[in-house]
Specification:
Low-confidence stretches: none
Strand content: 25-35%
Shape: elongated
Keywords: Flavoprotein, Membrane, Oxidoreductase, Transmembrane, Transmembrane helix
Mean pLDDT: 94
Oligomer: single chain
Largest sheet: 7 strands, mixed
Radius of gyration: 24 Å
CATH superfamily of the largest domain: FAD/NAD(P)-binding domain
Pfam family, one: Pyr_redox_2
Organism: Quadrisphaera granulorum
Domain FAD/NAD(P)-binding: 10-302
Catalytic activity: [thioredoxin]-dithiol + NADP(+) = [thioredoxin]-disulfide + NADPH + H(+)
CATH class of the largest domain: Alpha Beta
Distance between the termini: 59 Å
C-alpha cells in the first residue's frame, strides 16, 4: 500500500489505472489539471503475454504498458497511488460546484471535482478444471488479440453458449484445424454445422472434464472428456462473462446495464455512458472495461483520452462560471459601498 499523503482536493480522481484510466489522466494533466489515479495493480489483461493491435507498441506486456503510462503521467505532474477506492459520494449540494469525496481502502480520503470510472471487470470463466490456470496463455477468447500467436496450429472451441459457430468461423482464418467441443453449449444449427463441416471443422460431443498443459511455454493443451477420451490441440477458445463491480456506481446513482451478445448476457454492471464517457450523473465519466467490457486496449485508450478531454472542458466551464460569479459579487459589493 502506498503511504503517500493525498492532496486535499484534485481536479479529477481516476478510479483504475489501466490503459483507459491512464490515458484519461494524461489528457487532463497535459491541460495542467491536478489528477490522482488510484489503482489496485491488478489489470484484467495481466495473464496475457502481450498486447496486440496497439500501433507502435505491438506485443508489449500489459504491466510494462502500465508502467510506461504511469511514468508519462508523472512527467505531466499527475499522481498514482496503489490501493482501492472503497467509497465515492457527492458532497456538494444542489446549485453548488460539483464535489465528490473519495475514500481509499487504507482510510485516506480526498475530494475530487470530477470522477473518471475506469475500473476493470472480472472474467467469470467456464467451470472446467484447469481452465483458469491456462487463461490468457493457452485458453484464449479473442482471435484479434491472440490469433496470430497460434497461427497454423490446431484450436478447440469450447461451446458454452450461442457464439460457437461464430467463433469457429473466425478462428478458421488462423488455425490449421478447428475442433468444436460440444461441452454444455446448445446444439449448433444444422445449416451452420453443415457449412463448418464442409470447411473442415470437426465436432466432438461430450462434456469436457479437464484441461491440462502439454509441453513447455509454447506447448499446447490436452483436453480430457468425461468419457475418458483425450485430444491435444495448440489452444482452447473459451468465452467468459464479464462482471463489472457496481459497488461504486450504485453509491453514486450511476446508471448501469447488462450487455447481451446473441441473446446471452455477456457482461453485467456495465456503466451507461455517452460517446464522451459522460454518465447519467453530472461530473462522473466512465471509460475502459467499466463502460465497454469487450473493447480491446487501443479502443479503451482512445475512450479514456476522449473522457479526459471532455472532463477538461467541463472543468474549464466551471472555472469560467466561478470567475463570472466572483466578478458579479465584487461589482455588487462596490455598488453597495458607493451607495453608502
Amino acid at each position: 500500500m502506498d503511504s503517500e499523503q493525498l492532496d486535499e482536493q484534485y481536479d479529477a480522481v481516476v478510479v483504475g489505472g489501466g490503459a483507459a484510466g491512464l490515458a484519461g489522466a494524461i489528457a487532463l494533466a497535459r491541460m495542467r489539471r491536478s489528477v490522482l489515479v488510484v489503482d489496485s495493480g491488478q489489470p484484467r489483461n495481466a495473464p496475457a503475454d502481450g498486447i496486440h493491435n496497439l500501433l507502435g507498441r505491438e506485443g508489449v506486456p500489459p504491466r510494462e504498458l502500465v508502467a510506461a503510462g504511469r511514468a508519462e503521467l508523472a512527467g505531466y505532474g499527475g499522481s498514482v497511488v496503489e490501493g482501492r477506492v472503497t467509497s465515492l459520494r457527492r458532497s456538494s449540494g444542489d446549485g453548488e460546484p460539483l464535489r465528490f469525496v473519495v475514500v481509499l481502502d487504507d482510510g485516506r480520503t480526498t475530494t475530487a471535482r470530477r470522477l473518471l470510472l475506469a475500473h476493470s471487470g472480472t472474467d467469470v470463466l467456464p467451470p472446467v478444471p484447469g481452465l483458469r490456470e491456462l487463461w490468457g496463455s493457452r485458453v484464449l477468447h479473442c482471435p484479434f488479440c491472440h490469433g496470430w500467436e497460434v497461427r497454423g496450429r490446431s484450436v478447440a472451441v469450447l461451446s458454452t453458449g450461442p457464439v460457437t459457430a461464430h467463433a469457429a468461423t473466425l478462428w478458421r482464418s488462423v488455425a490449421s484445424r478447428v475442433v468444436v467441443l460440444s461441452h454444455t453449449g446448445p446444439e449448433v444449427e444444422a445449416s451452420q454445422r453443415q457449412e463448418l463441416e464442409a470447411a473442415g471443422v470437426e465436432f466432438v460431443t461430450g462434456e469436457v472434464a479437464s484441461l491440462e498443459p502439454v509441453g513447455d511455454d509454447d506447448g499446447g493443451v490436452r483436453v480430457r472428456l468425461a468419457s475418458g477420451r483425450t485430444l491435444e490441440v495448440g489452444a482452447v477458445v473459451a468465452a467468459s462473462q464479464v462482471r463489472v463491480d457496481t459497488s461504486l456506481t450504485a453509491a453514486l446513482g450511476v446508471d448501469v446495464t447488462d450487455v447481451e451478445v446473441m441473446g446471452v448476457v455477456a457482461a453485467t454492471g456495465v456503466v451507461v455512458a455517452d460517446p464522451t464517457g459522460a454518465t447519467s450523473i453530472p461530473g462522473v465519466w466512465a471509460a475502459g472495461n467499466a463502460a465497454a467490457p469487450m473493447a480491446v486496449v487501443p479502443a479503451v485508450t482512445a475512450a479514456g483520452m476522449q473522457a479526459g478531454a471532455a472532463m477538461t472542458m467541463d472543468l474549464a466551464r466551471e472555472d469560467l462560471a466561478a470567475a463570472a460569479a466572483a466578478r458579479t459579487e465584487l461589482h455588487d459589493d462596490e455598488m453597495a459601498g458607493a451607495a453608502r
